[in-house]
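Example record

The entry below shows one chain as it appears in the dataset: sequence first, then structure tokens.
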Amino acid sequence: MIAKVSVVIDNHNYGRFLKETLDSVLSQVLDDVDVDIVVVDDGSTDDSREILASYAPRVKSLLQARQGQAMAFNNGLAAATGDIVCLLDSDDIFLPGKLEAVISAFKDPTVVCVQHFLHDTDAHLVPLPRRFPAWPARYTLDDYAAGRTEFTATSGLAFRREVLKKCLPIPKDLFYYLDDFLTAHALFFGEIANIPEVLGLHRMHGANWCAGGLEDPKKIERDFQDRALYSSFRDRWLSEAGRSRSPEAVDAERLELWRRRVLLESLRARPLEAARAWREGLRGLPKTRHARFRAVTTALAVLSPTLYLALYDAYSRP
């Protein structure tokens, strides 16, 4: 029986979004379930802390010096007291019925994590074109090892607190793969329930790192750094469980890294290095249709990263 749900929110200088975010949680209607809201303010210098003070005591505020998002969540999750813990970034919002749907999915005792769709929007919550994955009802560790899992972003995730404790702490230097770190690790203790419904809005705006992740060399470099750290934990978890990734999963990651290396050099205006990275990626290329498609499209990134990104954006739209 779920008697209490915690919502843990991380915030740094998002005072302009914070009221809307908090109100989206406070407006959730639940019967016989308490909602515990914990906001970790990570060294904000705007009006965030004044806004948080105005929501006391309905909202618990943890005020810390700037430590980064991972530590904000580590501290917030340690303070959560609910049977279920939902994550929420302070520039995103929950839609009506979100908590009710999540609680219902946790009625299955084999479920340790629940995820749902988030609709990307601009800063003013105007929806952006979005393609959603064809989720199965459940993900298992077999799916993860085979590379068949597609995870939502932070604000679409909820965990059983007892399992979450086993997955913490998040490495303090991890940023891009913070949510994947928790979601993937949870699969070693049970199943993920997928709710194929939009139950939250995910802002994409100039101030966050999720916007334009393939257009900025600094963001691609940070992705390489975080991916390596996340992968080291993933491989350790699999080894300890006597498991390994499938050849298909290994090939898929290799192709993605290849694409990003070529694109990084092209965006740096280093065409010779981009061409060299492309040629190196051809060695031992998997003999699949997807690999051939990636080879052709990645060659386009060598010639014109602007054209490649425009076509990629068009291809990604529904």
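Notes for this example: DSSP finds twelve helices and nine strands in the chain. The chain has a mean pLDDT of 95.
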